[in-house]
Batch of 2 targets.
Target 1
Amino acid sequence: MKPLLAFAALATLGIAACDQVAPATPEPTPGPMAQSSALNGTYNLLESNCGDPTSDKSLVIDGNKFMFPAATCTVANSEQQVNRTRVTLACEGSPAAGNRVVDLQSRPDGTLRMTENSITLTYHQCMKASASTDSLVGQTM
């Protein structure tokens, strides 16, 4: 009788496991990093300043480097999320020295949205470029 009870218990567990359906995997949403070099290039908060190398509203992304007018940051970590990529930047320069956590969203209109805390900036892509440095952005995204 004991082997029969053990078999019945095992069969019940097997049926219960079959009744549980794995949660649906969310459809991948196009994130900002389709490939490791997807964001490489020059950006500006003002599209009209794209040709101005002295603009104080520029951003250059080169592999794992984010170069702002007063700070240079290196990607320390990146994590792909459903509709954005969370990037930890280790920055040198003022006023942004230290670690910064930003959320990046690449938009179909050629803009890059960067959110830090409650502030969102929209950068216009001025020019695409291939990376000249090691690319960490996108490897874990």
Target 2
Amino acid sequence: MSTVIAFALLIGSLLGGRFRIFILPPAVVLGATVLGLVSAWQGHGSAHILGLILAFSTALQLGYFSGALLIRTRATDYREPAAPSFDSRSFG
């Protein structure tokens, strides 16, 4: 289970850093489906599968928000001052 949590954190941080749209619900559904099918195929009980999916979705969300937060804070460090705007006052 710790491997699933570690990979979910990594995948979540990659998704949070890469996508500006909210891609978390499809990722949770896809991951939960794959984990549920593989765990059922291996013969695990329903309580184990439910706990694994819950841990996966929680770790994925934590990774997503931490990745998005990291990208936002790093982007503000490298941002240059805004260029002057062209409005009615700047044309005389």
